[in-house]
Amino acid sequence: MPSVPQLHHELGRALEAMARLPLHDVLEQRGVLRALARELALEGLRQEARFSSDEVGEMGAQLWAGLPGDAPNVPETDLAGDWIGSLPEDVRGRVRQRWDHLRLQKVLEDRYGERVEAHYLERRADLEQVVLRLMRLPQQGLAEELYLRLIDDGASFGALASRHSLGDESVTRGIVGPIELSQLHPTLRGVLASLAPGDMHPPFVLEASILLVRLEHRRPASLSEALRHRLLEELLQPDLESWLDSALAELRRTHAAAPLPPAPVPALAGA
User: Fold this and answer.
1) Helical axes 89-112 vs 32-46, angle rounded to 10°
2) 228 with 109: CB under 8 angstroms?
3) Rounded to whole angstroms, how far apart are CA atoms 157 and 170?
4) CA-CA distance, 115 to 128, in Å (whole number)?
5) For residues 132 and 215, is the Cβ–Cβ distance under 8 A?
6) How many CA atoms lie within 13 Å of 259's alpha carbon, on the beta-carbon side?
7) DSSP structural state of residue 201
8) What are 132-146's pLDDT values in tens digits?
9) How confident is the model at residue 93 (pLDDT cuts 50, 70, 90)?
10) CA atoms within 13 A on the CB side of 98
């Protein structure tokens, strides 16, 4: 770790280098500008939300679930107004967060709702959840020995994993999951695709380890309300990223034509 004087010196040089750049370049390089553009784009989407009278009538209970007192009176005629600002201070933040979620989900449903089922069918295999037993082993010879003990001698996978596995599976007795197939390494997904519950695969190499795997359980995906919301957000992402790319490209073009003066170099304490 650098000394305090050295860190002070390096920090000063970094600030001087950043100060030579236009502010928007610094913000873009640090990811701040894209994050800000993302939030502005999402807020723009939320403001497009339009609710029927019946939907407005149902929202009070959703917004106030688990909170003290009576549900808020959501105004049917001025949903864009700051009606949340009139609520008790200790609940405003939670109600506003829920309100933002409801508005965004409404817009996503209106925009992408007709595409959700087709998207679900495309993603269903990856959304399946599995429970498996897994051991990460350092040597092929040990892996083959343990494999034979498991299939021929009825040895306990959990006991062997606790004793021999290199990964966290030594603590979990080899149990992994429930976990979505999409979250697993492609090689491991391919191995599991060939197994029925109770089947074990011969030792195979994955990155720096030799793996032994037994499939315990499969849980097929179902289009629940929570999964529907997640798929709607997945459908939004390509459009959102395209909007952000276009907006930032236009910002760069505008500032290249009329660049801002560089920001002043901030003074460091003790400099």
Assistant:
1) 80
2) no
3) 11
4) 20
5) yes
6) 8
7) E
8) 999 999 999 999 999
9) confident
10) 17
Q: What is the largest CA-CA distance in the chain?
A: 77
Angstrom distance (rounded) from CA 78 to CA 50? 11
Spatial strand order of the sheet with 200-206 comes to: 175-180, 129-137, 209-219, 200-206
List the beta strands (DSSP E) in 34-90: none
Percent of the chain with pLDDT over 90: 46
Q: Give the chain's radius of gyration (CA, Å).
A: 27
At 191-215, the pLDDT tens digits run: 998 899 999 999 999 988 899 999 9
Peptide bond into 178 cis (omega under 30): yes
Contact call for residues 178 and 219 (beta carbons, < 8 A): yes
Tell me how far apart the alpha carbons of residues 89 and 80 are, in angstroms, rounded to a whole number: 19
